[in-house]
Amino acid sequence: MNMFKMDVLSSTLQFSTSHLSSTTTSTIVALCVFFALLCACIIIGHLLEETRWANESITALLLGLCSGLVVLLVTKFRSIDILTFSEDLFFIYLLPPIIFNAGFKIEKKLFFRNFNYILLFGVLGTVISFCLISLGAFLLINRTGIANLDIKDILAIGAILSATDSVCTLQVLSQEETPLLYGIVFGEGVVNDAMSIVLFNSVQSLNFSTINAVTALELLGTFLYLFCTSTVLGIVVGLLSAYLIKTFYFGRHSTDREVALMMLMAYFSYMIAELLELSGILTIFVCGIVMSHYTWHNVTENSRITTKHSFATISFISETFIFLYVGMDALDIDKWKTSIASVGTLIAVSSTFIALVLIGRASLVFPIANIANCFMTRENTRIEFRSQFVIWWAGLMRGAVTIALSCNQFLISEVTSTEDSALMITSTITLVLFSTMVFGSITKPLIEVVQLRHSRQTVSDSNDYHDELRLLFLNGDDSINETMDEPLQRRTRLSLMMRYPATTVHYYWRQFDYKFMRHIFGGRDLVPVVPGTPLGED
Amino acid sequence: MNMFKMDVLSSTLQFSTSHLSSTTTSTIVALCVFFALLCACIIIGHLLEETRWANESITALLLGLCSGLVVLLVTKFRSIDILTFSEDLFFIYLLPPIIFNAGFKIEKKLFFRNFNYILLFGVLGTVISFCLISLGAFLLINRTGIANLDIKDILAIGAILSATDSVCTLQVLSQEETPLLYGIVFGEGVVNDAMSIVLFNSVQSLNFSTINAVTALELLGTFLYLFCTSTVLGIVVGLLSAYLIKTFYFGRHSTDREVALMMLMAYFSYMIAELLELSGILTIFVCGIVMSHYTWHNVTENSRITTKHSFATISFISETFIFLYVGMDALDIDKWKTSIASVGTLIAVSSTFIALVLIGRASLVFPIANIANCFMTRENTRIEFRSQFVIWWAGLMRGAVTIALSCNQFLISEVTSTEDSALMITSTITLVLFSTMVFGSITKPLIEVVQLRHSRQTVSDSNDYHDELRLLFLNGDDSINETMDEPLQRRTRLSLMMRYPATTVHYYWRQFDYKFMRHIFGGRDLVPVVPGTPLGED
Lengths: 538, 538
Fold this sequence. Notes:
Chain A is mainly α and 538 residues long.
């Protein structure tokens, strides 16, 4: 490190200020490099917008790799702090804004309309993927003698490789043209992140010295506990923010206070969840949804524009930063040195991982989709084969969550040997680089070939269907009351609920929301619009 | 630390996730506490908005003190990381957004109209204050034998105590009612921060083993060098951002990229200045001014609203955080333990500091103001006595910059003994607490008593005067060209320039700006307005 610092600094000025200590100087060098690279990423990504083969993730990844190489050459292949992936940085500062923004900007209608599918793919699918990949890793790595991993490590690999990164595919899909597909891929991606992290936490928290049926039950119990408590915590913090902002009416004095409070409360929800050892990711995601449903409607017009765009901007910067960071981290020479395995072994393990991902994904998407299709009565809610293919494809990319979890598991493993741990980390990095760059760059052309642009009628159909249903319910409430007798009415509702459970739940939720929640926590069209300060004045 | 962590955590859950390491856990506890306190500050500050005696700074300071006390009680008076002031955190993350926002939201007209006064008070005044306080400290502390300080420490104290904090006063003054006074206090405050930090850096960078006239010249040279290079760097980065955003026309694809680029470039200017060992504070301030003049006008409407409010929000959060942090830091038990001085000594040194601040400030404000009045030909640009009083008062408060510089100087001092260093730090903290709470809380009533609300005519007068002048210049450009001969015209301009140098420079700058700069870097009314995405859609 010192050498690099000296090279950069000594040539600049003859006098030195002791104003900042030496750790700080290295921080400053690192920040400078990263800020310059981030700016470059944004500009290059903007220029490549129209290109078929590239996207922002790949640009950032490649730029990260190049600058990592430059740093390595400058430091003459010595290990350097700047290249080491810090999972604290990732989990405390980079991931929360991305997940919060995913919840905040979520199209709630889109999400809840496809709620069944999202649950199926996101929750059930991730669990299946977790089991299959764990089993596969056990058979292909431990049994073949490539490495000797603990049962905990094997399960961790299952969770690590289950965390997909569907950003690439989402950039290609169009929400207007294929709303069902977009909704499923988007919703699954978000739920999947939360699920794999919760699964990973559950695996880590258990003691696997004796494995029996009780352990599996414990795993399930821990998982359910984490899932429920985290969700509840997110809802509570979100509602609290809505209540505070509605009650104290901040817009009267300054919109900046509202924005500040929203930012702080969102982040606070994550921190308090981590403090209570729950899943912060799930909490902040739920908090984002609640905030966009209530809090966001309680603030001034200017605050709405500001929060909408600043959350998106922060999330965008974090995402780009992560890819850049992953690219640079791939050249952390220490990891490659520690792994004494030959290139052949590395390729073998990486290929195994890639194969597991491909097969594991296929053996959950196609069965689930086809079984679900059997239960779907209406044509336009079915998933046709090419949509299934796109869903399968979208789940092949692996990203920063995978690397972060892998570092977390194998950098401080007590059981597994250092060489095997390093092998696992380098294989994971290889998998991420390969999937993002190879799978990622052919996503756009591939999806264009699969040609999904024709199914435009889905939107209107789907809307019709919901309108129809809503009409039925509304009738059941008001006009039919007089003409229809009570038992018949109840029977109609019951049969409706059986046929469209998600929609029915959504309907009752809306009733509850309008009659009760909105009076306490505010929401759309309920709080008088406070005109913000006009632009240019203060 | 451990004990506190255990108390909080062990009572919550029986299983532990090793997902986050133990350093991270303490970070999370600290972040949780700070986020909760920040939210509390915002809410309490909002509720106290109408009160005469309180303001946000005092609320934050008191809350910080209280929570520091609670933490101390919980940990049973053991030292705890959370209470230690980290100057890196302050200089790298908290101060830059505040200074950038000060530059970004600056009323350029207000600033440049009062440019002469701001330079007089901000630059000359700070230098005078620096000399007087250094001399006073030398005579009152070293000569009386209270402590034995190095010459470098004495000069550092001069710079440390010269950094004023006029936030309190600005909250009370009204920009509409007393524009001249507001402009001077605001402008001086900003320039003063930059000046004292540059002075401090200059002092630290020099070798004081032999003191003679050359040392003084070196100090001056270093100071001028830092001042000029930092300013130029800020201008360059600001213009670069304007050029990039204008050329690449980011709004076409997404407003988030524009906002991200503006944030990143602003911060980058600070980092690059620190890397080159210049004054990052001055650089980011200048960068803020340039960005608000060019870059801000090149982005979409939504990006403008977002940047305006998000920069203000981040600055607001940082400011509140700093006061909270200073409050908590005051209870860092280690500092008080190391200072073995008796309570009497502490009070003596603190009183000396307060006296130095009071007298030093008085002996620069009143002379400068009265000398300046002699040169001012027009009645409404003179500073009447009660305005002088307010300017004097505004410069009495000391804030976070003082504490940060003091920690920087005395935590790692090689020459001065540990006890004397600790004494200086505790005295500085006492000074900051006293001035913010005592002087701060009587600011509002005091200024209301001084009754400045009547001088409303100043605005229109001042405008008239500028309009008049502009008309003269415009005539000189266009209509008079035909009727007046060249030498006469030039003579008129020359005499005008002698009488109103700042205004004349401003006039030529505007000519240059319109004819040359704006074509390259964009600016108001030059770039076609790109309608942002309407609210609610994506």
